[in-house]
Specification:
Layout: H1 2-11, H2 14-31, E1 33-38, E2 45-46, E3 50-52, E4 58-62, H3 70-82, E5 90-95, H4 99-106, E6 111-117, E7 125-126, E8 139-143, H5 154-164, E9 165-172, E10 185-186, H6 193-200, E11 207-208, H7 213-220, E12 223-227, H8 235-240, E13 249-253
Parallel strand pairs: 5-6, 5-8, 6-7, 8-9
Antiparallel strand pairs: 1-2, 3-4, 9-13, 10-11, 12-13
Length: 254
């Protein structure tokens, strides 16, 4: 069964996986029900979470109920505990909307919620992040997580994110990041998917971001807070929620 889960979650195209998840999630949640770990997004607890990852599998990271990963649960806790995202009126733009968040955010009465992506079936607006069809200074909050590592011209994408964010607005732009690496590594000559997966961690990634990611965002004009939110949580909660200790949330202000 473990091998079957890996196949389902790692090899099926994302749009199809989104549709299949409506059937898969209730089965997984029932089979793994327990009291060891908790998904803070829906409050449900399980005896274990599922493994996930391209190439090297990370154990105990995928929630059986929401299909959230460590980064999703960390972002949820930050938004819920540290912001007025769920209470104040906000105009929100969400890139490549994650399955763990989509229905919840869509149903929030306080949010004017727009999703965008080139391929996702959950996108309201099909758009290229490097050429957005939105007016300047339009959104209070922009969520663009684990997208920029796929974009060859991430400078142009960041400029577009800055353009459509309102002055005083907040953008959260999580990426897979190697904090042991000072500078970002990219090589456009690497086009083979297997080689990309080996070097960049996933077949459709085009770079590995280092610690200089935050300074690149600053060079675009953002004020960036490097939020090490797991350091603000009790260690037992980091373990119970299956978070990645030390993961940084890039909170960007205009």
């Amino acid at each position: 069964m473990k091998k079957a889960f890996k196949f389902i979650l790692n090899t099926i195209p994302r749009p199809l996986l989104i549709r299949l998840s409506y059937v898969i999630r209730p089965v997984l949640a029932l089979a793994l029900k327990g009291n060891t770990f908790t998904d803070p997004i829906d409050g449900r607890s399980f005896k274990k979470f599922l493994p996930y990852g391209y190439g090297t599998q990370r154990n105990n990271v995928l929630s059986p109920s929401t299909l959230s990963l460590e980064r999703h649960r960390l972002l949820w806790l930050y938004l819920n505990n540290e912001t007025d995202f769920f209470t104040a009126p906000k105009k929100v733009l969400h890139f490549a909307p994650e399955q763990a968040f989509y229905k919840i955010f869509r149903n929030q009465k306080n949010l004017e919620y727009t999703t965008t992506d080139l391929f996702s079936p959950l996108a309201d607006v099909k758009a290229d992040i490097c050429d957005l069809p939105f007016e300047d200074n339009m959104y209070d909050i922009i969520l663009c997580n684990h997208v920029l590592e796929h974009i060859p011209d991430d400078t142009k994408a960041m400029q577009e994110l800055y353009r459509v964010l309102k002055p005083g607005g907040i953008g959260i732009f999580q990426i897979p990041q190697d904090l042991n690496r000072a500078t970002t590594f990219a090589d456009d000559s690497i086009t083979d998917q297997k080689e990309r997966a080996k070097i960049f961690g996933q077949y459709d990634h085009v770079r590995i971001y280092g610690r200089d990611y935050f300074d690149k965002l600053r060079s675009i004009g953002f004020t960036v807070v490097e939020e090490d939110y797991t350091a603000k949580l009790a260690p037992e909660l980091v373990e119970r929620y299956c978070l990645a200790k030390g993961e940084i949330i890039p909170v960007c202000f205009k």
